[in-house]
Amino acid sequence: MEALTRPKDDLFDNSTMTFGEHLEELRGSLVKAIIWLLIGLAVGLMFANRVVRFIQEPLKQAIIEYNADRDLKEMGLPDRKEDPQVSRFYEFLTANSLVADVVYTLPSASIPLLAEDPVVESNTATESTLETETDEDAGPDDESEDGEAEALVVPARITTAELMKSMGAIPNPDELVPAIHLRRSERGLSSLKIEEPFMIWVKAGLIVGAVLASPMIFYHLWSFVAAGLHSHERRYVYVYLPFSVVLFVSGVVLAFGLVLHYVLTFLLQFNGSMDVAVEPRLTYYVNFVLMLPLGFGVAFQLPLVMLFLQRIDLIQTQDYINSWRVAVLVI
Predict the structure, then answer these.
(1) Are 283 and 200 in contact (CB under 8 A)?
(2) What is the pLDDT confidence band of residue 82, given thresholds at 50, 70 and 90?
(3) Are 249 and 280 within one domain?
(4) Alpha-carbon distance 251 to 120, whole Å?
(5) Which residue, 87, 171, 296, 310, has most beta carbons within 10 Å?
(6) Under a CB-based contact definition with an 8 Å cutoff, are residues 169 and 260 in contact?
(7) How many separate domains does the chain show?
(8) What phi and psi, each to the nearest 5 degrees, are found at residue 171?
């Protein structure tokens, strides 16, 4: 009687494979998945630079628009949505990545001209050759050498100290002429560590490689899991998995293609309100760009999760209806 009620020590008595064979099968599936991941990494590293440049574009565009709006406000111009001329000037600033600076210049009459001898770049061998040669020995080749020497003549560099010394006096502030200077500014991401760009390059290549190799990675992992499922359990996976992939990809595309621009614009407004300079860092921005689409992709799985919980009778449909206020607040 005790033999009938005593639980069996070996949980794999009814299995066609032993526990060690299951572990060996799992190890084989993981090794194959890792091999495909390494292959994807090798391919992803080829496109890592392009990926990093691609994800920088939304930030660059947001900074350009932020700078243009800030300059229009500092100039005291009306709202660009109400004035066509201001709107046209705004489009010119954003199209050429221009920022406005106030500069003070001296009147041209007070700026002396320095008569400096031009600097000629030449080597010792050429100078010695020119000294020993005479006009009688000069030929066509020598004329070409003279032309090359003349082409190397560059103007002397005038330093600020020399210019101030030649003026003889400190400029009178009353003579300074203010002017608005438009300069091109294509500020991008910055790195504070030497190895930071390399680590971002590897991370971008790993992400691209994981995406490219994901079909084969999931195939080998699924081949191990599916062997232990019943037919009706596998049927649920075959039905829900395609919808899950479509929803996840839709969330990622929506986040990067539409939401990211508005999020960056919203966050940059706080820089303007607190008068904080915009100097985005490479690592932080890349992590932010990766987490935002990932969060949207996971959030798009919510309808599928709700349907799954209802199918297994864990949560009833009426429970969803009664909790819609809480759902709106949380979501």
Answers:
(1) yes
(2) confident
(3) yes
(4) 63
(5) 296
(6) no
(7) 2
(8) -60, 140
Local structure of residue 175 (DSSP, 8 states)? G
Tokens, residue 123: 């080597």
Q: Say what the pTM is.
A: 0.67
Are residue 296 and residue 227 in the same domain, yes or no?
yes
Q: Are residues 180 and 202 in the same domain?
A: no
Give the 3-state secondary structure of residue 102. Answer: strand
In the numeric block, which tokens belong to residue 57?
Answer: 């574009």
Q: What is the DSSP secondary-structure string of 245-271?
A: HHHHHHHHHHIIIIIHHHHHHHHHHHH
Distance CA 171, CA 177 (A): 11
Cα 45 to Cα 49: distance, rounded to the nearest angstrom: 8
Same domain, 154 and 207: no
Q: Quick check: is 234 in a domain? A: yes
Neighbours of 280 (CB within 10 A): 18
Residue 235 tokens read as 């049927």
Q: Is 121 in the same domain as 269?
A: no
**Are residues 194 and 49 part of one domain?**
yes
Of 184, 203, 222, which marks where a domain is finished?
184
Cβ contacts of 314 within 8 Å, gap of 6 or more: none
Query: Which sign does the torsion angle of CA 284, 286, 289, 291 carry?
Result: negative
Look at residue 291 and tell me if it is in a domain: yes
Q: Alpha carbon 73 to chain centroid distance?
A: 28
Mean pLDDT of the chain, nearest integer: 78
pLDDT of residue 12: 45
Per-residue pLDDT at 202:
92
Adjacent-strand bridge partners of 121: none
Provide the residue range defining the domain that includes 171.
104-184
Strand partners for 38: none
Predicted confidence (pLDDT) per residue in 23-55, tens digit: 888 888 899 999 999 999 999 999 999 988 998
Domain-terminating residue out of 131, 153, 184: 184
